Structure formats: structure tokens, C-alpha cells
Amino acid sequence: MTIFRKAYNLKPLLMAAVIAASLPISALMAHAEGAAVDAKLPAYQAATGVAGNIDSIGSDTLNNLMTFWSESFKKHYPNVKIQVEGKGSSTAPPALIAGTATFGPMSRKMKSTEEDEFEKKYGFKPTPIGVALDSLAVFVHKDNPLKTLSMPQVDAIFSKSRKGGYANDITEWKSFSADGPLASLPISLYGRNSASGTYGYFKEHALYKGDFKDTVKEQPGSAAVVMGITEDKAGIGYSGIGYVTSGVKAVALSPKDGEPAYDANIENVLSGKYPLSRMLYIYVIKEPNKPLPALQQEFLKFVLSKEGQEIVSKDGYLPLPADMAAKEQGKI
Amino acid sequence: MDKQFLKRVRRKDKIAKTVIQVCGIMVIVCVFAILALIVKVTLPLLSPSRITDAQTVALNALVGSTPVAIGLDSYGDAFHIIDQGGTITFLDAKNGEVLSQHPIREQGGSHIKQIEQYKNSFYNILWQDSSLSMIEVRYQPKFDAQGKRTIDTSFQTIKSWSALAEPELLAQSYVRLSADNRFSRIDLMTDNTLTLSHEVTTTDFLDNKKTEAFTLRIDEALPGRVTALALDDLGLALYVGTDNGYVVRWDLNENDAVKKTDTFAATDKSTPISSLGLVFGGQSLVVGAQTGTMQTWMPVTAEANNAIKKMQKIHVLEPHSGAVSTILSSRRSKTVYSISQAGTIHADHMTSEKHLFTIPAAYQVFGISQKDNALIALGSDHLMRIWQIDNPHPETSFKTLFGKVWYEGYSKPEYVWQSSSQSDDAEPKLSLVPLIFGTMKGTFYAMLFSIPLAIFGAVYTSQFTSAKFRKSIKPIIEVMASVPSVVIGFLIALWLAPIVERSLFPLLVGLFVIPLIFTLAMVVIQPFYRNRRFVNLLSGYEFLLMLPVLFLGGWLAVSLAPGLEALLFNGNFKVWLYQDMGMRYDQRNCIIIAFGLGICVIPIIFSITEDAISNIPPSLTAASLALGASRWQTVWRVILPSASPGIFAAMIIGFGRAVGETMVVLMATGNTPIMDWSIFNGMRTLSANIAVEIPEAPMDGTLYRVLFLCATVLFTLTFVLNTGAEIIRERLRKKYGRY
What we know:
By secondary structure, chain A is α/β, with parallel strands linked by helices.
């Protein structure tokens, strides 16, 4: 719903909606144990004389995280103002190029055409800083008996091009269960809008770069996808695992037909067994051979610290291991 | 009256007239200025691609023997030449000075027999002694402390293969490296047979590397002598073209087996195939023939069996005048570059079939930069020429925007809107037809719902209710118009849509039951109307009598629905709809949209219609009633025709509002770009599409301009409709509106 935030000054209403939409999430977060944070991560040490503004425009998946990070960051530096806008990863490159944002959170890597545009403006390439790990989940209604899917099946459900090689188009729940109340219903598809990095990632990895069916209902946010499925018994959709609620169920995925399926938990993501895991990035405008402005540097340092990664874990995403965080820290 | 006063009045009249005229003209100017601005952003979509002849560099004497391959960096700073003797030379593009020169093989010795370029930076070099090298040429921008850019040029040998036992048997070799570390090598022997070998390196969790090798011979007889060969970037598919016009395709996915998937005649009259190439993405094959024709083919699902894909001719590109000798593809779009034996260079975009430019005259070899922004060619006059390519919108043409296009991976030509993707090699699908269709569909259902309600409502309030009641009802309905549409969208998407989904069947039953109950009620009530006292008492408040009937109807519909559903549709109407009628029920559908847009549009139509009716002179109504016509006859025969121009205008204004309405459709339609008139599914409208995609469209990019084109189409649509409506309204006014 954040898409409307700028166009209409309806913040109170939207805030109410966002709170309403995120209630089940926070309820779940309360009892779900977040993934353990690597003990070797450095603790954050506040610097002095840091003040100014940070504007962040980009991923909707990272929107919650960015907001939580900003809140905790502001506890260290009360004079810092941070504005976070999350309409989709594809909005990050235009905003960085136009100079309306200093941070571009993205749930995917920039395309080379986007990098080209950036380079045309600045003369150097943008710098991606990996800030968290995420796994995309395929959600179904909580009463749906479906437990596992193979990636080619996911492709056959969502894609009209079926590049995954599954023989038949899957449009009905009959294909999975012969009886039960679902058997007679068509599959109802939910997905993200095209600005979303989740959309792009799913298209590349789950659809094997194929095209979405026209019947996929595009929702403006991940929470809206989950809401749609909660209300729709025949629904299936995808979004970041962080958005899971009690109304939906994540399906275990197997990379190929006939192979074992894996849940979207941290072990399976780190070992690379879960097929839809990815890195989340914050893109920055870093001039070669020059350090970032102090404020941006401190923010990223905070994000990559133990404190920052604990927030990642609390929000349902997967924290970076210490060596990975150190590598990203080196890019700043 | 004194003259002074008259003068003052005239002066004031004059001032008022001028001010109003100026303001009116300003409004018209503003509207046209907005249109002009929108169109101005759109226009570059039509502009042809330009190439500018940037530099000419005389071939330096330092470069040894005949150049066999050339290429350049994306910044226009440096380029490289690989010569027959096996040396790579990097040169400065500004002045032609040699930056560095290296032998590709340390041991030197042999000459290059065959060289193949792929991904615009990799070369497979087959040496005379039948050994093989795969190299990558790299241009890395480096920045010094002042931020000044320099280009670091280097090349790296990815892998080398040693010479064969019988070198004279090997004619050509091609190698590819896949994403999971598999080298796939194809050897074409002089006896017209093919050998395939894979070398797979796997790394386990303990970082131990294990290499396995597989060698496969392709034994089956080929349809003719091999004249061209193409391998996709990852080594997953092999295409071989023959001297009698056939192309054979093999699937190389498996390590230990090679699968022939197709053999097809790719040219007319068995013309030999002179060159093959793959368009960026590795899906489509470009077939260049001896006669100069260029066509693209791709695997398409055969109708009968879903799993089997057969190659099919999709696009025809601008033909060369002579045989096509080399085909290169852009790494940024579906642009195909080709050179003929005569040395003419062509650039064509596959999807739009647009011929981008021709470079005439005789060139021997050419190369393009990674970013698809520069082209280098070596002329037969030993001059190197570098062109800057300005090719911002190759993918748009009238056909791709408004016509059916056969996209990669589709089984037939279709209208598709799917603008963005994470991968660079995706084919942008920018057909505006589904969006225009969606706009029309949403508006149609909204008008179907709101016009009868609003007009009958207006007629009733202005003609049948008491004046006191009328005075309060009109402002109430007009207040509806002031509800922000985002709030309406929000409510109907999150609150109404699930309700309608749960009670779809009662809703449909209600559509039949409520009018039926109303008619029954009228019949029942008839005897009472003979009583004058009753009529006078009720006059103007008849609707109060109807309220319980309405509730009764609603209650009946709800209580009848389960029984009827069980009786007629086997207990589930949605399932029946899907299985017997083939219609899907989506939660976000046109019923919802009709309600949502209705709330926006009804107040407008109602209010204007009410005004139009109220403006009918009371003398007319009085005359009609005095002559003995009933109230209904008066309304139907006298009032409605007289008010028809106004009512028509109300409908058109409502229509215009519905066409342009964004927030309601954006939030409640699901934004599915489907082309289906069914009331049970959604749509994607032009206006919602602009709102959804403009934040992700890079300024001045193709998507950005296409979205402005959407705006132009929307503008034109409302402009044409409004003008048409105005003409009709004038006619109605001449015919009926005499007051």
C-alpha cells in the first residue's frame, strides 16, 4: 500500500492499514524464534558528530527492515533524519540516478541496463552492499493440504511459457489432490507488481525467465499478497518469508521433480538447498577511491553490526554470517 | 436612465467579457500545452536510431598480419585487434597509438585457423596445429585519486586444449562455458561429422574439485554439408546449418547424451545457409542465407503435445544483397548485427522487425561493444572506423505497440503487456491493446451499473418525491462525490471483495428476485390506489412503502440462494461457472469495479441529470398534467425527451470520469492485463498502469515513453468521446430542447 504514500496525503489511513496488515506478522514474530545471529559479528560503536538526512527509495521487501534500522539508528544519533519509501526494487535505480535518494535498497541485483544508466550519470558503477539474506516462499491458504511443490510445478502454475520443462499447464487444484473441497476449484494466483524485485527474482528463478500468466493478480505489496491468499481458499502466491502469517502456509520446495523438498529455514538457505534464497542489497553512490559520507558509512556499519543483524533476524529474515558481513563492510 | 450609468454598465460588461474570453482561451491553451508536452515525451519512440561516425584510425604498422577479429570497449577509449599471427593488440581509440601488444599463446608459433567471437568479449581460437584457446578480452574502468577514468585493458586465457593427433581432420571448433562450470566443445571434422565433449568440474563442500569428461559422437547422417554452426552462450543447444538449407538442432543439456530435437528446412528452394547466430537470451536463432535473407526461428510448443517444441519461423529481417557472413548479437537488447560477404553491415531489432541502420561500403570484420553503444569495423581500405550508436528505442514500432506479436516462448502471436523483468535478455512486451481493452471493459461495466441507477434516481427524486425530501436527498448524494477515490478503492478491495466472493450467488439471485417481488408488490397495492385519501397521504413518500419490499426481496434472495445453488448448480455456483462455462471467478473482478466506480460516477450523473430535469419549465409539466396525462406519462413523454441533452451530457461526463479513474481500479482490479469480457475477472487499465509503473521507469527510457503514450491514448480517448458526445448533444438539443 505504500505506493500511494506520496501521491495522496492519507498517511493516517494508510498507517492504520499498514498496522492492520502487519498485526498478524508481528503476532507471529512474537512466537517465532528468529534465526540465531552470528556471535562473531562486531557490536556497533557510535561515532561522534554524525548528523544529516538519509533518503531511501526502493524495495518493498526491505521496507520494514529499513524502517526498523532507521529507528534503532536514530537512538544513537537523534539529529539524523531518515526517510524510507518502499515501492519496489525497480524504483531504486531511477531514484539514485535522479539524486532523490542516497540509498537504494533492492531485493535483487541491478540489471546491466540499469547499471549503464547509472554510469551514464555518474561515470562510475553503483556499489551494492549485501545486508541480509532472504528466502522467497510460495504461500497457500492455511487449509490447503498441499505440502510440497517442485520448481517445474511452480513454473507450470505461474508461467505461461513453462520454461521449466513441466509438460502440462497447471490451472486447477485437481492436479494435486483428487478429492477434497479444493479439487473442483481453479488455482487463483497472487503476485507482486512489476516494480518489485521479488517479482523479478521469482520470474528469473521460479519461472526460468519465462513470463507470468496474465491471470496473476498483481498486488502493490508483499503484505497484500498474503492478505489475498488468506481470503482466498484457492489462492497461491509468493513473497518474502518475512511476511508469513497464520492465515497462510509456506510450501516446501524441491529443485527438480522427484527430489526431496526443503523448507525455507536458515539451514536450508545457507546450505543452498532451498531453491529460492537470495541476498538483499542496499545500493549506494560511492565515488571510486573516496569514502562514503560519514552518515551513510555509519548507517551501513550499523546495519552490518550485531545490533543491525539482530533486527534482520527479528523481522523474519536471515542474518549474514560474520565473514560475509566483514566482506560487505570492506566495500564501504 | 442617466447616460453615465449606462456607460459604466457597458464598461463593466466589456471588462467582464474580456476577462472571461482571456480565461477561456487560457484554459484551451493549457489543455493543448499539456497534450503537447505529453506527446513531446512520446515522440522520440518514433525517431530512427542514429549512428555517428566518431573516429577513423589508420591501421598502425605495428599490427602484424591480417586482422581476424576486432572489438572495443563501451567508453570509446580503446579497442583491440587480433591478427592472423595470433597477437592481440590494444590501441587507443583517440589517436590509434598502441597501448599494449601480447602474443595470445606464450609459445607462439602457430597461426589462427578459425576464430569465433561470442558474448562480444570471448573468443574461441582454433590454431593451425589444431590446439584451441578460449580467451576473454577485458576492459576495466579504473579511477585515479581525482576520479579521472582510465581503461585497463587485458585479456585472459580461460582454458586451452592441446592439439589433436590428426590435426588436418579438424575443420572448426566451438567452446562454451556454462554457469555451473561445464565446458562444452563442438568439433566439426573435415568429413562432415560432429564430435561433442563436455568437461564438468564440480566442487563439493570440502572444496575438492572433481573433473569429469564426456565425449560423444554425433553419428546420424546430416542432411547436407555443414556450412554454418551456432552454439548458445551456455552451451546448451547446438544448431547446424547445411548447404541445402536445413538446420538441425541438438539439446546438449545432459552430460552423457545428446538429443536431436529438430531438423527443418530454414530457407526457400534449398538455398545454402551461410551464417547462423543466436539472439541475446539464446532462444531465437538467426538464419542468414546465401541469398542474403535473414530470418529468426525459435522453438514453439506444438499444439497437440505440450512437451514437444518445434522450431518455427517468427520474424523476417531486412535482407542483405549478398550472402550473410557473420551474425553478432547485442548484449543489451534483441538487436542483431550482421555483415554480408560484400561488407555491408546491418542492424535489426528482432521483436519489432525494425531495420535500425545500414553501414554501406566494404568492411571485412566488425565488433560491437558490451553496452551496445559503439561499433567498430575494419574497411578494405585498412582504416578502422568507430561509430557511436544512439539507439534508444529499437523495440517499439506501431506493430509492437498495437499489433499481435509472436514473442519468444509463446505458442502464437498475442497482445501482451509485460514490461519489466529482472533479466537483461527478456523481450519487452509493450502492447497497449490489453490496457485499452481493460479501460473499456471497466468503464463499460461501471456505466452498466451506474447509468440506470443514477438516471432513474434523479427522475424519481425530481418528479415523484416531495420537495422537502428532494432538498435533503440531493446534497447527500453529492457528498458521495467528495469521498476520495483511494478510500473507495481501499474499502472495496479489502472489505467488499471478500463479501461479494462469499455471497456471489445470493447477489445474482437477488438480481432476479428483487424485481419480481417489486412487481408482485405493485399488483398487490393496486386496489389501495383507488382510495384517494391513501394516495394523497402517500404522495411523495411512496418509496417508504417500497422499503419493506426491498428488504423482503433481499431476505428472500439470501434464504433461497443455498437451496437454488444446490438444485441448479450442484451446490457450488463458482465451480459450475468454471467447469461448465469455462469462466474463472476472481476475487478482484468487474462486479467489484462496477460498485467502486459506481460510487465515484453516480453522484455526478445523478446531480447533472437532476439539474437538467429541474430546469424543464413547470408550465410544460403543468400543461401535460392538465391535459390528463399521468405523472409517469408526463415523465416519459415530456420531461425525459426535453431533458435528454442534459442527461446525455451527464452520462458522458460520468463516462469520462470512469475512463480516467485510477485509484479505485488500481487497488481493486488485481491489474491483470487479460483480454476477456467476462464480468467475473479483472482488468488492467491505462490509468492504473501509468500509476503502477511510472516509479520504476527510468527517465527517458522506453518504458517511460510508452507510459506517456498510454497517457496520450487516454487523452485522445476522452477527447474523441467528448467531442462525439458534444455533437450528439447539439443534435438532441435542436430536436427536443426548445427552451
